[in-house]
Amino acid sequence: MATLEKIRSKSAILFTVIIVALLAFILGDFLTSSRSLTGPGNTAAKVDGNKIDIQEFNRRVEQQREQMQQQGYTDVNLAQLQSQVLNSMVFEALVNDEMDALGITVTDAELSEAMTGDNPLPTVVQAVQQMGAPTPAVFYDFAFNPGKNSVPADQAAQLQQIWINLEKSTEQQLRQQKLGNLFSGALTANRLDAKSYYDENATTATVVYARKDFSSLNSDDFEVSKADIEKAYNADKKRYAIGEEQRPIDYIVVDIVPSADDLLAAQQEVESAIIALREQPGTEGVSGNLNFVVNRTAQPLNRLSAPVRNSIDSLRADGVRLLSFANNRYTIAKLVGVDQRVDSVEVEFVAIPGNAALRDSVVTLLNAGQSPDSLVVKGILPAAPVTQSLSLLDPNISQFSEPLSTHAAGSWFTPDTTDLSSQAIAFNIKSRKAPVSVYDVAEIVYNVDPSSTTVNRLRADLVKFLAENNTAALVAEKANTAGYHMFPGVVTESSLGIANYPETRGAAKWVMGAKKGQVSDVYGDEQSGRFIAIALKDIYDGGFVPASDPDLSRALKAKVLADKKAEKLLADYQGKANTVADYAKVMDSKVDTTSVTFGQRIVRGFPGGEFKLIGNVASAEPGKVNGPIATNNAVVVYEVINLDNTGREFDYDNDAMMFNQTQGAPALSRNIYGILLGNKKVTNNLQKFYQD
Question: Does 19 have pLDDT greater than 50?
């Protein structure tokens, strides 16, 4: 029955879980809100036609936000969290599609074994234990046999729904395990794969080479025409495909920070406060001034904060000290007083359920010589006593500190401060340590905030700049001169903000409705800590990033320029020598040595990704001069002077493992999202549901 009582005690928690779930549905739009009456209905996103419901999405967002807050994340970026949750739900939809296509199912017997079998899944065990049940079987019996366990009907219904939801999540988990097993089993190295990996990495070629870098040629001597860029673009156009319309932007961020005048005024106010704290008792020198936040504590020296502890000698002499000024925050300390107090006491305590009469009876029995353990055996006490050392200066036990510091040791008592409405706590003081010096210290914090004058001026200056430069081209041209720094970015229908800045959904929504070249109003306020303005540079709605994109255009120009330099150097040196040493003289270079293994990605002495060089060396005949060939950044002439394949012998187990890690399921799983997505289309509607 103890287990059942424990579950009953959780009924309030169960009720809260149900209410939270209902509120997530009812208050879905409250998250940030404003629903479009003519928008996407209830569809947060589509995955190749499969809909993700906005209410289920909101429920998961709220659930995730609560979990993060419970873990100490007090400032959750909601837009970023929403994007993460939606990505998770999109991936879940892709996985479900794949499992359905493969016909992966879970039988009733498999589900029962995973839920209530001899070895239930750890996730199931953890879930029911959080609800107060020792095992899934006990929880199930409690939920579906309410009469047997004296569970009220409404609570039983709640427990049953929790169990049904747990079944659904467990079934999904089992299906995913089966898919994972299929994926891993289908992409496991056989003997040929393992041998291929071994061969690619078994032989190392020692190479002597001479090289001439492209940087040795003046770029101004080569003309890169628009036609050249277009040709290079068309050759690799598929690489620049985009899944949704993209809108390149420039944006200005103005951080709302204190001005020089604000800092000076704050400094003067802090200096005046320090004088007042010295002249007046306690913390009266700052009382009534809401700019100062006081945290007063009384602790032994070893439990004071490090800045206070390190300044204790100065505080003893002066009483008040400015500890620090960092990140626009002043911290002042005042030593109010020092006295001797008992800090540590070792106690034995027990919980006594019931009314005052039972409390008095139990205390009488304990003081008459009855042991707490014997009262547990008789069922009078619910649990064995606990022995623990307590600090009487701990604020969490402040209601007990006075009786614990004065009551005689060796006798049981219940403090008068104990709440007797449900249970009492009886203490037996076993020992007290000698009094220690206790320092009564006030730590006083002053945050320097920007004044309303500063905030208004920052906004007015940005508004004026935008009014005078009302096109994207003008903003880009004039921003630096005006003291503003421009940041590049891209906004799509999937964007729930500008970059990772919180509370910028409205700005992202503006971008998707603006015309090319338009400039936004000012977004943000003092609460967000910044002002943001956006200039829409272009609109890419043709399925590809165009060659005119500045970043892509620069990359294409660099590639064309490298190709032209390679062509020039190849023509200059082709057939001009017979040995690597002679080529080095012709190139005005030097002879160097390196080693190349076909399976490697980096060649010592060269930038990463020189796969053309690696491939050429792998097929080269030893003792023969090869080249010149063009690599990514140079032309190279080389000769293989030695092949070393005297390393380890072929080991199927090891080489199969290495193949799997580099080319098998573990490697491919890192891109499982892209594999499952394939050519499927994802439509993200979230931007139509929310605004700041």
Answer: no
- Average pLDDT for the chain: 87
**What's the whole-number mean pLDDT along residues 54-59?**
91
| CATH label of the domain that carries residue 351 | 3.10.50
Given the structure tokens 């660099």, which residue do they identify? 558
> Does one domain contain both 419 and 507?
no
The domain containing residue 377 runs over which residues?
344-433
HEC per residue, 261-288? HHHHHHHHHHHHHHHHHHHCCCCCCCCC
Residue 596 phi, psi (nearest 5)? -135, 130
Question: Any alpha helices (H) in 368-426, and if so which ranges?
Answer: 372-377, 398-406
Q: What is the pLDDT of residue 353?
A: 76
As given in the structure block, the two tokens for residue 449 are 């905030």
Two tokens at 582? 């002679």
Q: pTM for the full model?
A: 0.70
**30 and 171 share one domain:** yes
Q: What are phi and psi of 285, to 5 degrees?
A: -65, -20
Question: 270 and 253 in one domain?
Answer: no
One domain, residues 500 and 558: no
Provide long-range contacts, Cβ within 8 A and 24+ apart, for 83-88: 83/494, 83/496, 83/686, 85/57, 85/60, 85/61, 86/44, 86/45, 86/52, 86/57, 86/684, 86/686, 88/60
pLDDT tens digits, 562-574: 999 999 999 999 9
Residues whose CB is less than 8 angstroms from the CB of residue 615 and which lie 6 or more positions away in sequence, other chains included: 598
Q: What is the pLDDT of residues 598-655, one digit of tens each?
A: 888 889 999 888 999 999 998 899 999 999 999 999 999 999 999 988 777 888 888 8
Same domain, 220 and 324: no
Q: Is residue 657 part of a domain?
A: no
